[in-house]
Write a structure and sequence with these properties.
Layout: H1 20-31, E1 34-35, H2 47-58, H3 71-85, E2 95-98, H4 101-112, E3 118-123, H5 129-135, E4 139-144, H6 154-160, E5 165-171, H7 183-193, E6 199-203, H8 223-226, E7 229-234, H9 235-239, E8 247-250, H10 253-266, H11 272-281, H12 286-289, H13 291-305, E9 312-313, E10 321-325, H14 334-345, E11 347-348, E12 350-351, E13 364-368, H15 373-384
Parallel strand pairs: 1-11, 3-4, 3-5, 5-6, 6-7
Antiparallel strand pairs: 2-8, 7-8, 9-10, 10-13, 12-13
């Protein structure tokens, strides 16, 4: 039964309705499709991590943690960041444990962006950036990454910066393309923001998933950028537990103070038993240092399995995504292709147009290789059997 309300209301996001992700999810369920669409693992996390949560619960760590997070966990994060990237953060004032990386993004944007401000970000992009900006009464300014390599055109960034520009959102490694920033990108970003009040919001949830011996060029690796950056990362992506919804932010104390003001009223604190488990688990650096090789094996397997498919694969330097092109054998839209793959081949992917606010269609689909080997093999076999039209 539906409850009807007499209340008249105005939507803050009137153009947000049923997304392609929901449509694909429903269609996939109807056809029992192999899931290469969702950016979440289908394999189990390390039993040690689950045991750590159980122990924390049995030890009665079941109430609120400190608002900014568990102190030992925050200290481990600062030690990791200093060792890997050379930046030294204060665990007390410059680290915040959040109830997911998504909450970290929201708290950072809400705390630092004001009505009338402008926020530059790059498309294709994770779909929450622009709506969060709009909810603050600010203006999202989308710049398109240059194909085929999904690189930033820094001349376009320079031209897009105005006196109202408050923030630039970066995502490296990049979802959905799998591309990564390099040292030259950081140098250009630093040059463009020098002597401004522009904040860099850097979504680095795939920081440990960088391939082929390359380095993660995050904001903490560049001192000039670190001093104006909010870095967001994810325990869920790192440790294969996306449903646990725990992440963290790093930022200079003055910026973090504003972020915490939002966080304390939005969530107050992140999940306590999970924080204890992560603090215990992270004492072994191999839990995150082994991640690149782990996912590179999956990427390489997927590339090998799809070599005989009609699709052309684009390079993936990081994250757990591959893009596949079909413009050489089909005139279908990417959404039509994705629906056909579900119905005819029984495999679910994501159309790249879903990552553009204007629905730009480059005849590309996104595949997730964050799956067990059996799923990757079954999905690849189905894709290889597609008959070009």
């Amino acid at each position: 039964m539906t409850i009807h309300t007499p209340v008249q209301h105005r939507s803050k996001l009137p153009d947000v309705g049923t997304t392609i992700f929901t449509v694909i999810g429903q269609l996939s369920a109807q056809h029992n499709a192999i899931n290469l669409s969702q950016g979440a693992p289908n394999f189990s996390p390390d039993p040690k991590l689950i045991a750590g949560v159980t122990k924390a619960m049995l030890d009665n760590h079941n109430q609120y943690s400190a608002m900014t997070g568990l102190a030992p966990l925050k200290t481990l994060i600062t030690e990791k960041v200093e060792t890997l990237y050379g930046a030294r953060y204060d665990a007390g004032d410059e680290v915040l444990i959040t109830a997911s990386a998504s909450e970290g993004l929201y708290s950072a944007i809400s705390g630092l962006v004001h009505p009338g401000d402008e926020v530059i970000y790059f498309e294709p992009s994770f779909d929450s950036y622009a709506p969060i900006v709009r909810l603050q009464g600010a203006k999202p300014v989308a710049l398109k990454l240059a194909l085929p390599d999904f690189t930033v055109n820094w001349d376009e960034v320079r031209a897009a910066i105005t006196p109202r520009t408050r923030m630039i959102i970066i995502n490296t490694p990049h979802n959905p393309s799998g591309q990564i920033f390099n040292a030259q990108d950081l140098a250009m970003l630093a040059a463009l923001t020098r002597n401004t009040d522009i904040v860099i919001l850097s979504d680095e949830v795939y920081e440990h998933i960088v391939f082929d011996g390359q380095r993660h060029h995050g904001m903490a690796t560049h001192p000039q950028l670190a001093e104006r950056s909010v870095i967001v990362s994810s325990f869920g992506k790192t440790f294969h537990v996306t449903g646990w919804r725990v992440g963290y932010c790093l930022a200079p104390a003055a910026l973090m103070d504003e972020i915490c003001k939002v966080h304390q009223f939005l969530m107050f604190s992140a999940d306590t038993p999970m924080q204890y488990a992560f603090a215990d688990y992270m004492t072994d650096p191999q839990t995150y240092l082994s991640l690149a090789a782990f996912y590179q094996r999956k990427r390489d397997l997927m590339q090998t399995l799809l070599a005989g498919s009609p699709f052309k694969l684009l390079p993936s330097a990081g994250s757990f995504f591959l893009l596949a092109s079909f413009d050489h054998f089909s005139d279908e839209s990417d959404s039509e292709m994705v629906k056909r793959l579900i119905i005819e081949q029984g495999v679910a992917t994501i159309p790249l147009s879903a990552f553009y606010t204007d629905g730009t269609d480059n005849k590309l689909i996104r595949l997730s290789f964050a799956k067990d080997e059996a799923t990757l093999r079954a999905g690849a076999q189905a894709l290889c059997q597609l008959k070009p039209r």
